[in-house]
């Protein structure tokens, strides 16, 4: 059984480091980081996204999307935050970043795990949030029970363990917070940021990842 290894409280980063992201935190439909514009709702996702990666890495494909990879040098403010994350989490060499921009409460990310093969079997992912706080949920995947094993005559699929409170977590991700997912979090858990009717302000989330080359 895998373990979920999260800090009890997300780390917090010096919020002055988000100054380069300020234009992105405005609520207009277009935003920019440094001199580069990030367009809205790329590929019909329910939020804006932008993918940044070091040169020469394999392409990212997730949920049917294959985003173009921009280079770190095109986004100096993101490069600075990467350096800060490396200082906070020594031993990691993150080489890619998926930026999510939630323009308001209608923008969301559905249940998923970041278990693409290019991250390896137990990736460490650092998730940094700026702007409006939003709730982040984690839910344990149903445990897999072998179809060959039957103990009471009931089909194995019907005996899949029901989710209990200990199989769910929620974190309010505040401005300047950093939540780290590691160990078998991606293999054994799914996560989401659901819609919130009353939220109007913009949130930026940066997930730093290491792509195996
Ligand atoms: O916005 C967040 O906090 C989560 C984003 C996420 O799960 C992802 O980019 O894979
Ligand atoms: Fe994710």
UniProtKB/TrEMBL annotation:
Q: Which InterPro entries match?
A: AlkB-like, AlkB-like_sf, ALKBH2, Oxoglu/Fe-dep_dioxygenase_dom
Q: Which GO terms describe its biological process?
A: DNA alkylation repair
Positions annotated to bind 2-oxoglutarate: 100, 102, 112, 191, 203, 207, 209
The entry's protein name is DNA oxidative demethylase ALKBH2 isoform X2
Biased segments, Basic and acidic residues type: 149-167
Which Pfam families does the UniProt record give? Answer: 2OG-FeII_Oxy_2
Q: Which residues does the annotated region (Disordered) include? A: 1-21, 148-167
**Which GO terms label this protein's molecular function in UniProt?**
broad specificity oxidative DNA demethylase activity; cytosine C-5 DNA demethylase activity; ferrous iron binding
Residue positions annotated to bind substrate are 115
Report the sequence similarity comment from the record. Belongs to the alkB family.
Q: Where is the Fe2OG dioxygenase domain?
A: 93-212
Gene3D superfamilies on file: Alpha-ketoglutarate-dependent dioxygenase AlkB-like (2.60.120.590)
